[in-house]
Amino acid sequence: GKADVTCQMVVLGSGPGGYSAAFRAADLGMETVLIERWPVLGGVCLNVGCIPSKALLHTTAVMEEAQALSAHGIKFAAPKIDLQVLREHKDKVVSKLTTGLGGMAKARKVTVVTGSGRFLDPYHIEVALSDGSGTKIVKFEKAIIAAGSEAVKLPFLPEDPRIVDSTGALELRKIPKKMLVIGGGIIGLEMATVYSALGARLECVEMLDGLMLGADRDLVKVWEKKNAHRFDAIMLETKTVSAAAKKDGIHVTFEGKNAPKDPQVYDMVLVAVGRSPNGKRIDADKAGISVDERGFIAANKQMQTNVAHIYAIGDIAGGPMLAHKAVHEGHVAAESAAGKPSYFDARQIPAVAYTDPEIAWAGLTEAEAKQKGIKFTKAVFPWAASGRAIANGRDEGFTKLMFDVDDHRIIGGGIVGTHAGDLISEVALAVEMGADAVDIAKTIHPHPTLSESIGMAAEVFEGTCTDLP
Ligand code: FAD
């Protein structure tokens, strides 16, 4: 058929999965086109996800740490918050990264087409150009679908600027007095942490019987204790059933175990009830690609869909909706498409809640290990015994490792405490390499660090830990 652009590889969507795939394909010598409907590269993660949320979380964590120094004899005046400057700071962080990506695409001669793409058939994508100048047809030999996901909407909620999803919350238009977070998952609670630090009182409603349900309960408990002061209510096993936007606020009605009888009034409502993949929005059926009911596109270990020359990666391909998973899948898809032996076979995909304290885990959770019937021993090192955690004034955390009782290999681990997200990489590496308790315990960790707690937990398992109080 007719084509405006012809290429060996087209990548649809430029999030962490898409740009990683496009860059790897180009590095491997493929003529690559990257289609993105937004004006800059980086997808959800860079523009309205991982990065802006962490820019804000860093600022608010430092602010709260500074305030906590009053217990050490250092008193600051109450913080004066200039939302406009904070917003600009966050936007600068994002644009530094997206500009960098644009430069990297150019350096690799990846052609970026800015517009919304949909399949016409197994070898053509039509792009409705974002500048309104019409359409372009991209003819390709191979394609990688990396079109990501969008926030799930609750249909009964009215359209009102005071009701936002994570993208709206990141815009930081104003700080509400009273904020309701619908959905007690990581994204909702990260944003709640930011707003709470900036002065909002929080309430949270969650349909299921716990917050951050992917994580082990012992880890979450530590976070709950440290964060109880932020919340006026945490309504578990409760649903939001309707809402009315009125002058004095959003009036929300609840149902379920912990539902208040009367509607409650909030200045802001954050909806964070999950994300849905964009599989149904790209006419994948015209290329013969199977899309499931929810919009996911299944892929094999090479990341191939049912149509062998078309791959799917990232949030749209199922599995944990995480940027680092999307990146690795992107590399696999590009390498496979370029004819290299490559497959996705991760033993572990780490997960992090960048709350305060952070919660991180890698490999199996305790709940998963139990479910699988694996016989394991849990070794815990409480940070109350960590010199560094005590020196930091943040000894509420702990590090736990789980070892197979037969071969003593690590099957997983979890950490709750400051910087847990950075610390978990060592557990990830240990799981990926099949390290056993002696490997970890005999690895000399620097003193005094939080990372020592990982070596110490392995020593607890070995029965050689003498440093516990
Ligand atoms: P996405 O990043 O979703 O990118 C898809 C891209 O495709 C978008 O740019 C979109 O515009 C484009 N697109 C879609 N359809 C079309 C089309 N038809 N034509 C052209 N372009 C199209 N993950 C982490 O690992 N760590 C975190 O700390 C973290 N924090 C998060 C915080 C928030 C608030 C949110 C919302 C998410 C967070 N995530 C985090 C999840 C992470 O953002 C996603 O897992 C990741 O972005 C998925 O990458 P992806 O490449 O699959 O797609």
TrEMBL record:
Its cofactor is FAD; (R)-lipoate. It catalyses: N(6)-[(R)-dihydrolipoyl]-L-lysyl-[protein] + NAD(+) = N(6)-[(R)-lipoyl]-L-lysyl-[protein] + NADH + H(+). Keywords: Disulfide bond, FAD, Flavoprotein, Lipoyl, NAD, Oxidoreductase, Redox-active center. Its EC number is 1.8.1.4. It is an enzyme of class 1 (oxidoreductase). The keyword Flavoprotein applies. Binds 1 FAD per subunit. Transmembrane segments: none annotated. Belongs to the class-I pyridine nucleotide-disulfide oxidoreductase family. The active site is a redox-active disulfide bond. This is Dihydrolipoyl dehydrogenase. The chain holds residues 122 to 590 of 595 of the full protein.
